[in-house]
Amino acid sequence: MKLKISENSLFAILLRAPWWISLLVVAVIVLASGALLPAAYVPFGVMGALPFLGIALLAAWRQRHAPKPARVAELLGQAAAMSWRDFSALIEAAFQRQGYVVTRPSHPGADLQLLKDARITLLSCKRWKAANTGVQPLQELASAQATLGASASTFISLAPVSDSAQRFAKAQGIHLMTLAELAQLLMPSGAA
């Protein structure tokens, strides 16, 4: 059984926030414990900060190779200026660097098929420059996933995805790649 925390829980929010925010929470708890608790209970109050220290360390570990916001904006701007052929070649090369075997499926709802460890993931990214994204491309991707028997699917878009499309993606188990994930994928090896 895989443990999954709610994405709106305090711990999930802190995991997505910069690591130093969790460290700030630790400092507040430690200082408040020292100021408000009797001396005999201060160690117990300080122990209440340990989960937040763990979150700070985990968030720092996850964010260690994350690109800087200016670099994210630069990479996404470059992607938006590309032709479909160049963009798809870049995405294909990025997944190949991660060890995927990349092919182009015959189903119109998917642009790339990724194979790794006997697991097939379909990728739809042809509408990466659309002004907005509705449900239709996600329905096509879900259809491709069912038809081709893929175990997962991912949708890439630089534009916001409508609320109804987000609900559809969540219901169908389609991963909507975030802009930060896309920038991390597009980043050349060893760059930050």
Verbal overview:
This protein is of the alpha/beta class and 192 residues long. It folds into two domains: 54 residues; 118 residues, 3-Layer(aba) Sandwich (Trna Endonuclease, Chain: A, domain 1), CATH 3.40.1350.10. It has nine helices and five strands; from the N terminus they run H-H-H-H-H-H-E-E-E-H-E-H-E-H. It has a five-stranded mixed beta sheet, sandwiched between helices. Helix 5 packs across helix 9. The protein is elongated, with a radius of gyration of 21 Å. This is Putative membrane protein.
Question: What's the layout of helices and strands?
Answer:
Layout: H1 10-16, H2 19-36, H3 42-47, H4 50-63, H5 69-81, H6 84-97, E1 101-103, E2 112-116, E3 119-124, H7 136-148, E4 152-155, H8 163-172, E5 174-176, H9 179-186
Parallel strand pairs: 3-4, 4-5
Antiparallel strand pairs: 1-2, 2-3
Helix pairs in contact: 1-4, 2-4, 5-9, 7-8
GO molecular function: DNA binding; endonuclease activity
Keywords: Membrane, Transmembrane, Transmembrane helix
Protein name: Putative membrane protein
What keywords describe this structure?
9 helices, 5 strands, DNA binding, alpha/beta, Restrct_endonuc_IV_Mrr, transmembrane, five-stranded mixed β-sheet, 54% helix, elongated, Trna Endonuclease, Chain: A, domain 1, 192 residues, 2 domains, membrane
